[in-house]
Amino acid sequence: MYPYYEPDWSVLPPENNRRFNPAFNMASIRQVINEAVERGIMRMPTPTRLRDLIRQIRAARTAAEERAVVNKECAYIRSTFREEDSVWRCRNIAKLLYIHMLGYPAHFGQLECLKLTASPRFTDKRIGYLGAMLLLDERQDVHLLITNCLKNDLNSPTQFVVGLALCTLGAIASPEMARDLASEVERLMKSPNAYIRKKAALCAFRVIRRVPELMEIFLPATRSLLSEKNHGILITGVTLITEMCENSPDTLSHFKKIVPNLVRILKNLILAGYSPEHDVSGVSDPFLQVKILRLLRILGHNDPDASEAMNDILAQVATNTETSKNVGNTILYETVLSIMDIRSEGGLRVLAINILGRFLLNSDKNIRYVALNTLLRTVHADTSAVQRHRTTILECLKDPDVSIRRRAMELSFALINGQNIRSMTKELLVFLEKADSEFKAQCSSGMVLSAERFAPSTRWHLDTQLNILVAAGNYVRDDVVSSTIQLISSSPSTEQAYISAKMWEALQTPNNCEDKQPLLQVAVWAIGEYGDLFMYGEKNDDIPRPAEKDIVEMYQKLLWAPQGSTSSKQYTLISLAKLSTRLQAAQDEIKQIIDAFGSHLNVDLQQRGVEFSQLFKTHNHLRAALLEKMPPMQLNRMSAQNGAGVTSPDENGGGAGDLIENGLDEENVVTIAEGSNALLELLGGTSSQEISIPNAPKAVSVPLPITGGVSNNKDLMDLLGDLDLSAANSNTPAVESSTNGNVLSMPPIVSPTVGMNLDISMSNSSLITGFMDDLSMQSDNQSTTPKLTALEKNGLSVVLAPRKASGCLHVIMTATNSSLNTVEQFLFQAAVPKSFTLQMLSPSGSTLLPGGTITQEMRVSQSSKAVLRMRLRISYTTDGNPVLEQTEVSGFPEDAFD
């Protein structure tokens, strides 16, 4: 007998023997399979693994193939969700998150993520919370369902589950969810577990950023974080305190007493020995050092006591940090920012700028760029220290990196003064000749502004303007052309003859007429205006004097050149008409050329040709008088010598593109007579007529009630409200700043008053910011008075520098941005009492980069004896948020108008 059938071969009885079961036949096998199918075990195939899905997507050769793979997988995932398949839910959500990161819609998995967060398994919770952070936001109703799950997990005994809940809360917290769970987060910040405390501090940071009014809840727990020895908790604590101090001035004052603690922590990091846990390239925990330095910078800003407490440690960091590694350079960079932002000592500032100078010699382009950018932001603080590195900065103009060249160019303009104007201009001209086209416009305008401020002589100024026009070519802005014409018109006759000869010489150079249209325009204008001085005046030995025939032939060539622009031909045609009264001969040749333009295809040139032809015929006796020399012109920003003015510079040139005869453009200046309604006239009309202000905002008709009497203490009215002079003779502080930061949608309109001159000058021009930062430098014979700080808030500083001049008081407003944010749409407005007349010139720009400045000049004249007070309104936008500051300034010199 076969041995397997022996009963003693098995311990079990024959009917239960697994080796032989007569009932286990094909029918029973078929039944088991059918039952399995009915239960759904084999109804749904095993899902594709995440790594296999990634391989399939990467193997797709076209976007269509990729979409096919993704759509197929998404269809399968949807079917598993409908079948309530909890076995493979975690894997399907993981694949769905990968598909979401590729940019495909995955919103249908939101509820499944919530189901995973409620799972008791940690792996399911991890994927569920990750999906919640990626797929949910506060605009969806599903977002509210996760609050209870988060609250339960925040009380979990497992630290990693608590960490998951804290990370998710910080990522997707809505204001309502933050308010509901803030107390839980505050409780976890006091947990004995270091891992949980660190996560809770980071979550509190996100909650405060989302709902700033919850800051007070976390203050007690935050103070204790600085006493921790765990570096992770220290970093999160410093980060949390930094966020609090940046958002609340009261909290900033509260945390100023922790400066000694921060100094001690930073000193321990510097003096600590090697610590393998925190060492990065030989530096002990550079991340914590950077965080502490930034917090010290915030706490020490405009605080002499706090600054004095951190001066020594900043000097130690600056001298003891290793610079051979990028980690050390990072710490030094933050140290420099801190030194320049606090009330540090002069020697410490020089040390900081010298560190930036060493950065300029680094081979790493990023470090050189950071150094230039930082020097540009801090040059206003200590210009003399930055001047020591002028040679290195000029070398950066030759750097192949375009970003470094741009920053070096901007910094070079900031360093120009009366002593180095010649050498700096020579270097910048070399740069301008070889610069890319994107630099030529900005560089040429910057050089023109610098030459206007610091030119040592008129001839040097004229030569520089000519060299700029030659080097920049067609990339010169219109403001350069107009400023050059203004300079020539206001120069002495000998210099006008000289520059006309130089312009003629420049026209002889090949390609100057084609590639340098702005030069052509200035040249023909100068020759047309001063052709008699050029041809018959004192002879210049350096430049041969041409024949009249040569001049006419050159003009004929320019007028019919196909490469010439219409604007240049307009200049040339007018110049040729003027030459008909300057030159003694060649009248017939000039007349023939002008007559030919009577049938020109261009309508404007045709009209000019017809009109000028009439001057040679029926109105020949008027030609000499009509085409006489123009009087000296001034730029728009330098106009309006008397009376109140409302100037509105053009958009491109900031007012530098318009030329005004005799220094006063009557159409752009509105004089507000004493006794009239100042506000109504400023808005565009009076009781009897409407006033038109070209280039100014459209006149607004505002109905105002007429009052029978005028109160004595209501005799000042402006766009900023009533200015009460009841305390004018009392010992009031120099500056009374309003803390009201609300933005007014329109200027407040108050009841009309009598007897006030009001002048408000607005400009959104942004020609070149940063080059007008030192308008307060004056000649030795002009007396100066101490500066008045009008505003010091949120990194924005507005300082008024009064200067006594003949018959009036010049006040230079300088706005400086010491914050890290860009200030845009900066608008400065001012009003004075009725006893004074205020004239405001155009500002240097409307955008304040970090470390940048904007300047604006005001001129105040006095009609009767009174104390000068000034009401200011400053509006700007930072980070997309509009800000309005209102302040009142007094303390001007009493003898300013003597």
Write the layout of secondary structure elements.
Layout: H1 26-38, H2 50-59, H3 63-82, H4 89-101, H5 110-117, H6 122-135, H7 142-154, H8 159-172, H9 175-188, H10 194-210, H11 215-223, H12 231-247, H13 249-255, H14 259-271, E1 279-280, E2 283-284, H15 286-300, H16 304-320, H17 326-341, H18 346-360, H19 365-378, H20 383-387, H21 390-395, H22 402-415, H23 421-434, H24 437-454, H25 458-472, H26 478-489, H27 493-507, H28 512-515, H29 517-529, H30 531-536, H31 548-559, H32 566-582, H33 587-596, H34 603-615, H35 620-626, E3 633-635, E4 659-661, H36 678-683, E5 717-718, E6 721-722, E7 735-737, E8 788-793, E9 796-805, E10 808-817, E11 823-831, E12 836-840, E13 853-862, E14 870-878, E15 881-889
Explain what you see:
The protein is an alpha+beta fold. The protein has 36 helices and 15 strands. The protein has a five-stranded antiparallel beta sheet with strand order 8-9-10-13-12, with no helix packed on it. α27 (493-507) packs across α29 (517-529). It starts with 25 loop residues before the first helix and ends in a 9-residue tail after the last strand. Residues 1-12 and 636-784 have low confidence and may be disordered.
Briefly, what is this?
By secondary structure, the chain is of the alpha+beta class.
Mean pLDDT: 77
* Largest beta-sheet characterization: 5 strands, antiparallel
Estimated helix fraction: 40-55%
Specify the overall morphology: globular
What is Rg?
38 Å
